[in-house]
Description:
It contains twelve helices and ten strands. By secondary structure, the protein is an alpha/beta fold. Strands 1, 2, 3, 4, 5, 6, 7, 8, 9 and 10 form a ten-stranded mixed beta sheet that branches. It is globular.
Amino acid sequence: MTDERVTVVVITMDRRDELLRTLDHMTALPERPRVIVVDNGSRDGSADAVARAYPGVGLIRSACNLGAVGRNVAVEEVTTPYVAFCDDDTWWEPGALSGAADLLEAHPRLASVTGRILVEPGRYEDPITPELRYSPVPGPGWMPGPVLLSILAGASMLRVAAFREAGGFSPRLWLGGEEELLSLDLVARGWWLCWAEDVVVHHAASKIRDRRQRRRLGIRNTLWTAWLRRPAPDALRRTMAVLRAVPKDRASASAVAAAVAGLPWVLRERRVVPMEVERGLRLLEEPQRTSVARRYVD
């Protein structure tokens, strides 16, 4: 039976074959969710292929690449209480959508559920899993899983009301580590984020990507987020940790230059999170420093 609590949103650009594979999985789920695809200006016929093969899938054709903001556009059309985000190279396992929706339904102050990612084709756990499973961030006794301070957009379900309250994904960050700022804005408003062992999402990483550009954006956005939301001493400490970790190359230098160029905007928009949130961020610094999943490499 259709689970009428959930809409799935997929953003894509120039990955027609991966997108069609993902839609094969998502439209075959027992939950039969409504699916909306946002095509970010693809030039490979992705949008036309979706229209032909999946006439029941909602399709938004953007004339340009909106990045993560494409999700915001889709959520404007969502009428269900929960939205599951899905990249064109990820898909949710049967039962995972209903499981995540059950958790959100049972816990009214829970804003998001992030699933356990299995990397294809070997179905091994994503390297970031230990950070999520053993998160040191404290939370209330009702939490159904480890407390997070950042979601993984391609493997998370969110409460639509909370997403809209926090303003969605930032147009300035565009894409690449864009989840952290949204997540901090959610928890600063009193919402909670969790990880769920039994909510399984599969990831078959696409080879069609500009890895160096994604790294530049990820470094820039990490630095911007630190200065947008953390107290100055903590933002400085985070900045130094990032600069020590990145490769000493032109891509990293370009990322830092872009971060510095955006400082006027950052300082105008700066809103420091409550101290209880900052205490959680401090607890995450050591796991982030030793993480094998957070290496700034192409």
